[in-house]
Structure prediction request, 596 residues.
Amino acid sequence: MRHPLFFAIVYALVLIATARTYKSCDSPIYCEGPLLRTVQLSNIFTDSKTFVDRPTAKPVDEVLKAFQQLGITPSVTDIRMFVEENFLEPGMELSQVLIKSNKQPQILERVTDPAYSVWMSDLNQYWSNLTYTFNTTFLCDGCQTSILPTKRPFVVPGGRFREFYYWDSYFVIEGLLYSELNDVAKGMIENFLDFVETYGFLPNGARIYYLNRSQPPFLTRMIKRYLDFVDDEELFTRALPILDTEYEFWMKNTTVEIYDPENDEKHYLNRFNVEYPYPRPEAYYEDWHTAHVDKDMTDQERVDLYSDLATGAETGWDYSSRWLRNKNFNGSSQFELLKSLNTRAIVPVELNSLLYDMEVQLSQWNTGKKKAYYQRRAEQRLHSMDRLLWNDEYSSFYDFNLTSQCQQIEFTPANYFPFWLGAIPERIAKDNKKLLSVFSELEGILKLYPGILTTTLVETGLQWDLPNGWPPLQYVTLHALLNVHKRITENKYTQSLSAQVDSLKTVARDLATRYVESGFCGWWATGGNVPGYLSNRGHTTDTGHMFEKFNVTVIGRSGGGGEYRPQIGFGWTNSIAFWIFANFDDFRAPNCTLVI
Ligand SMILES: *[C@@H]1O[C@H](CO)[C@@H](O)[C@H](O)[C@H]1NC(C)=O
Ligand SMILES: *[C@@H]1O[C@H](CO)[C@@H](O)[C@H](O)[C@H]1NC(C)=O
Ligand SMILES: *[C@@H]1O[C@H](CO)[C@@H](O)[C@H](O)[C@H]1NC(C)=O
Ligand SMILES: *[C@@H]1O[C@H](CO)[C@@H](O)[C@H](O)[C@H]1NC(C)=O
Ligand SMILES: *[C@@H]1O[C@H](CO)[C@@H](O)[C@H](O)[C@H]1NC(C)=O
Ligand SMILES: *[C@@H]1O[C@H](CO)[C@@H](O)[C@H](O)[C@H]1NC(C)=O
Ligand SMILES: *[C@@H]1O[C@H](CO)[C@@H](O)[C@H](O)[C@H]1NC(C)=O
Ligand SMILES: *[C@@H]1O[C@H](CO)[C@@H](O)[C@H](O)[C@H]1NC(C)=O
Prediction:
């Protein structure tokens, strides 16, 4: 028997499916085609992204003509010369914006330790080093760049990232709000709203080559956070219908149906899903190489692998054991591991939590039929998450593997997203013992290393695995711990549980302490200076930067798998430090000489 709601859903999906077309990557230079393929496969840059970030020096038709003249099999020297003659340097589209920073935002009053105070004041100034606009007045008539134009300034993460990114920006905005740069935060949100209006969805980042995929859907939450700080009816009114569009994109492009034989019912959940049959333009050589290590791969297998690589980038976790079919991490090379990507077959806990949050928010923000629609969607999703992602034996949510039709019982902080975003069935939310057992593993895992919380428990050499710890996942875990603590307190508990309840707070404080120590010592080790407290490290000419990720086995060391970043950064790392100071008191700065 099909529930009448089933028909309502199908009807809604059909409506959506016929409503919208998406803009896609269509440049003859920066998107799939002979020019991109030839230049990128010549491997003349150590990082494929360098080429697609270079604006043309001549009108596009001249560039294409010059490319034709290279013939069918140009030498690497000819290709190098072609690029030098026809392209400018990467990053030229960026103009730094001088923002008027508030030197004494209220948040700094909460930083009582003198050394931390010097550090956080510095971070508060860093926004001006990361705030840019796209300025293409240097481009000749008919020339092209890969940027997606925006009307307002934005904050870039730092390093090789010469544009802004979708999910990074949620965290960046959080920090901007604590630094009282509300206008910059608002401008970033408006840029995103423009993007959804123009492209039909929110691309991964502000480049034409990111038009084939999105990133974890944080826009609704971003707006919610902004509205927590600023009363802005105008932005809210503009955003509402645009958020419907973004929601439709996710439902249309990423929904999967899963049959539940036990209950004889169908569930609709979401997974990341990019169908893209080529190497990613900005990682062309790397992806091509991954798909050609094994000479016996069929064309169809290669096409599938390219889609799973692009989908991996859409998850924000590029790359991780979470998405690998091959679990033999020890005996396999990186290529052999990546070759086994199965990203599209994994129904991730965080994506469904974020969509649940979107449904709840949109039902709260809308009225009438729409309110009821989103409310129903939220209820259905919660029910499906409960059936498919929740594991009562282990008291945890886990990703669902469509290939095996089973949960993947693996530790990752992504499993805590429901406790941050409230995607928990009432039955669990009322059960104190159950809630307490959610974090039973966490304390033990934190005992393994002195640094922040690891991404997974397996070492694969990939960025989103041990020993790397990522700032956003600390933020989510801390929120989850604090929310569960609050919930248990509201539920009221017996004396016999009080030690366990208190330990939630202790663990949260421990993790928060590790975070600020890691950030601070990493900053100091790269030249950050606290006169009279820690002497400057003589061998560096830098003035202190913040890492994108950390090596959890040591306090204050950068994680691996990225490249050296000479620039001040890193957007999300800085922001989460602000959030921590807003939520915890009385930290004491460590003596980094002793811990690093
Ligand atoms: C992604 O790429 C494919 C193949 O080029 C194209 O058909 C599709 O329209 C693209 N999608 C988007 C959203 O750009
Ligand atoms: C950051 O910006 C300030 C002010 O514009 C400048 O003095 C400083 O040199 C910049 N630092 C870096 C590392 O770019
Ligand atoms: C854009 O760049 C041009 C020079 O290329 C400069 O004259 C102009 O001031 C810049 N505009 C902005 C808004 O930064
Ligand atoms: C979304 O789905 C449409 C239709 O199937 C497809 O053309 C488009 O490429 C997809 N967009 C993205 C960003 O994957
Ligand atoms: C999913 O299930 C398949 C089949 O059991 C298994 O081989 C694979 O390792 C699992 N995980 C992923 C990410 O594919
Ligand atoms: C991986 O290899 C190392 C050394 O060869 C061994 O000590 C370890 O137990 C192996 N781990 C797994 C999970 O097989
Ligand atoms: C930090 O430790 C070093 C090495 O033991 C010591 O020389 C220095 O005085 C300590 N600094 C502070 C601020 O405690
Ligand atoms: C992390 O730090 C340890 C030292 O504790 C080091 O052996 C390891 O190579 C580092 N890993 C990465 C990926 O940087």
User: Anything to note?
Assistant: The two ends are 63 Å apart (CA to CA). The first strand starts at residue 94 and ends at 96. The pocket of 2-acetamido-2-deoxy-beta-D-glucopyranose (ligand 1) is lined by residues 22, 24-25, 32, 211-212, 276 (CB under 6 Å).
